[in-house]
Amino acid sequence: MCLAMPMKIKTISGHSAECEAKGLTQSVRIDFIKDAEPGDYVMVHAGFAIEKMSEKEALENMELLEEIRNAL
């Protein structure tokens, strides 16, 4: 099973962004995201940002993922 993870864009260089979630940083391709900017939240799957999301959506999603992790 694969999961997408909400992450916050920290910096952008060309078509790549350095993103962060829960202290983890990852280089992510942002080819599919129009007008991506540092500070934006994006849903990341397999190293690609696949959707821009609001901060509220991202935080709710991270909370749900944490609940799942704690239940296991």
How would you describe the overall organization of this protein?
This protein has one domain: SH3 type barrels, CATH 2.30.30.140. Helices cover 24% and strands 44% of the residues. The mean pLDDT is 94. Strand 4 and strand 5 form a beta hairpin. It has one helix at residues 55-71, and strands spanning 5-13, 16-21, 24-29, 41-45, 48-53. With 72 residues, the protein is of the alpha+beta class. It has a five-stranded antiparallel sheet, with helices on one face.
Question: Which descriptors would you attach to this protein?
Answer:
SH3 type barrels, about 70 residues, alpha+beta, 5 strands, 1 helix
Describe the structure concisely:
The protein is α+β, with helices and mostly antiparallel strands and about 70 residues long. The chain is built from 1 helix and 5 strands, in the order βββββα.
SSE layout:
Layout: E1 5-13, E2 16-21, E3 24-29, E4 41-45, E5 48-53, H1 55-71
Antiparallel strand pairs: 1-2, 1-4, 2-3, 4-5
What is the overall pLDDT average?
A: 94
Number of helices: 1
Unreliable spans = none
- Give the biggest beta sheet: 5 strands, antiparallel
Strand order of the largest sheet: 3-2-1-4-5
Order of helices and strands: EEEEEH
